Amino acid sequence: MPEIWLGYGTTNVVLDIKQENLNQILQSPKILSDEYLNDFLANIKFSKNTLFVPLSSSKFVLKIISIIIELFNSKPQFEFSIGTYPEIFSLIKNFFSNSIKHFFQFDPLDLINQIKQYDQVVFISRLSYDPVFGFSGTPTILIRNSSNNLMHQIFSSFDFEFPKPGTINEPLKIAMEWCNKLDIYSIDLISCASGIININYTNADSFKESFSTLNSRSTYNVGENKSIIVSSGYEYENHMTLTNSLNFLWNVLPVLKKNGSAVLLSENNKGIGEGALKMFIEGRLDKNKIKKNYINGAEHLFFLDFLKNHYNLGIVSSLPFYYTHKKLGFVTFNNIKEVLVTFMSTYGKNSKILVCPEPDVTLLQK
Fold first, then answer.
1. Which of 11, 228, 261, 330 gives the lowest tally of CB atoms within 10 Å of its CB?
2. Are strands 134-136 and 128-130 parallel, antiparallel or unpaired?
3. At 122, which CATH number?
4. Average per-residue pLDDT in the chain?
5. How far apart are CA 161 and CA 181, in angstroms?
6. Pair 234, 209 in one domain
7. Is the dihedral of CA 45, 47, 48, 54 positive or negative?
8. CB neighbours of 96 closer than 8 A, spacing ≥ 6?
9. Would you call 330 helix, strand, or coil by DSSP?
10. Which pTM does this prediction carry?
11. Within its chain, how far is the Cα of 156 from the centroid?
């Protein structure tokens, strides 16, 4: 019996599944050495007044920041600052304690004005797949957080019947065109549980290249599947809220057979998350009125409306049953063993189950 560990909040849980019931476990590719990462960053020409903007609290983004701090400490004539969004500010600050002299958080909607005072602005992002934009990276994270008008435009015209991970679609093109006007640079990481797979230093003209690299390094042909168990990955930020986690469930559905079952493993110890999901659960949101007025996480409500009529969608989470089942319509499970028992009784003791440990950086195809 293979021993498979899946991310669940700050820890991992074991999946005890027989080899004959396992359709596929996706393996991690070769990672870059620390020496390579140090040399790569040392060869970038940073200005004497550089602002770094991490867009993720991923442990590998933190690793890159650590290397950058060492580089700048060896050049006393150079100064750097680090600024980021409020939701990840404390996570990054706590990690580095007092080792960063100039460290602050942005007003998200005023970010563009706040970065103008610096000679050079370098964003740091961890690339992943996104069911709306196709990909998540610097352009899409910025537009989600700092451009309400464009998010309203994208949301009002998007077809929410089916997720579209791994595609260069119209929302992504809008995001890249918007970033092209800002003259910004980005350190783009592709990482898995064991380390960093790829690193690029890009400007607005070459974001598409980074997304194409992710696609080429993480696409797997797995056929159609009756049942899927999907973790939210090994990064803690993926598990914090349900609003964060649901993207990863949507990302695997293109390979699920109609009327098949997919169960998301996500702790969500920070709750539902601020935005549309929480407002809907609390009875403060009319879904019919938000199509032209985007609220964070609103896409999940539209995906749910369509997808739960075609698939059996479940979840293992610390969230109350009232939220996940009564309000959102998920089948709820107490633990992963209960999921396996249900799948075997539904599809037969010899049925195959697809296990996807890292759906944030895995593109599944039929």
1. 11
2. antiparallel
3. 3.40.50.11440
4. 90
5. 31
6. no
7. negative
8. 62, 65, 66, 69, 103
9. coil
10. 0.92
11. 22
